[in-house]
């Protein structure tokens, strides 16, 4: 088959059109840097959320170990973090008073082993037969936990501790639940009433 000059020009035009279209598509497609930044942006958006939600974590025997309630929950996959608004966390340990933690905002991180409470944070141990209610208040608390429960609580912000009528203020606090030692740091001041060791 013999090609006429018109056919050759049409084929050449079609090839040029395909080349131009390919170039235009290559320019519009994201490059490696754009793909990396879009995957980073992906993590800024939650992959799950809930409103007015409650969760209960059970121990090996099926008894409630922790209860969490929040006005809003958001899970962010890039950090494996769950952000909560107006959280209320309750910890149950057999034979011990219930512990309740509240704040304006909370974040659960590192496979649920670190809980940060922000804004009017409060941790309270319920009254028991032998001891009055005890509470700690601060702008921030960091709680470290494992499968057996809470290990440590700390804050680098000013803190106030109350136990019955006794009140103690400090600049920082580190509490070790295993040794049951509260380390108050900075300017520590307070009033102790009917305090028994």
TrEMBL record:
Name the lineage.
Answer: Bacteria, Pseudomonadati, Pseudomonadota, Betaproteobacteria, Burkholderiales
Q: Which organism is it from?
A: Candidatus Glomeribacter gigasporarum BEG34
User: According to the lineage, what is the superkingdom?
Assistant: Bacteria
Name of the protein in its database record: LPS export ABC transporter periplasmic protein LptC
Protein's UniProt keywords contain ATP-binding: no
For this record, the Gene Ontology CC terms, alphabetical, are: outer membrane-bounded periplasmic space; plasma membrane
Q: Which InterPro entries does its entry note?
A: LipoPS_assembly_LptC-rel, LPS_export_LptC, LptC
Listed A to Z, the keywords are: Cell inner membrane, Cell membrane, Membrane, Transmembrane, Transmembrane helix
Q: Does the keyword Membrane apply?
A: yes
Q: Which GO terms describe its molecular function?
A: glycolipid transfer activity; lipopolysaccharide transmembrane transporter activity
Classification via NCBIfam families:
LptC_YrbK
